[in-house]
Design a protein that fits this description.
The chain has 94 residues and is an all-beta fold. Helices cover 0% and strands 51% of the residues. Strand 3 and strand 4 form a beta hairpin.
């Protein structure tokens, strides 16, 4: 009999788990810091790209994160709203 050893490895599972803003009621022209907490709940190290969306539109302000299993990190963006209104700000693995 001839055999081969097969080593099955885990996979990363990188997710955005929280998003905060330095203020949710800025004045026009005021800078707002958006901070996202990103966690790898998988069983292997991995890398993922994280981006910011405003009212559903991707902002192309991608941040790359590399995380070991069970590790977390934060990523932040500084944005300025130049018009009055209500904005839906989201952060997503892309």
């Amino acid at each position: 009999m001839v055999c081969i050893s097969v080593n099955v490895v885990g996979q990363p599972n990188i997710q955005v788990v929280d998003v905060t803003a330095s203020t949710t009621n800025p004045e026009v022209g005021q800078s707002v810091t958006i901070t996202a907490t990103v966690t790898n709940t998988g069983t292997a190290s991995g890398t993922a790209n994280i981006d910011l969306f405003i009212n559903g539109a991707r902002q192309n302000m991608t941040k790359s994160v590399s995380l070991n299993p069970s590790a977390s990190t934060t990523v932040s963006w500084n944005i300025t709203f130049n018009n009055t209104g209500s904005y839906n700000v989201c952060v997503e693995v892309v």
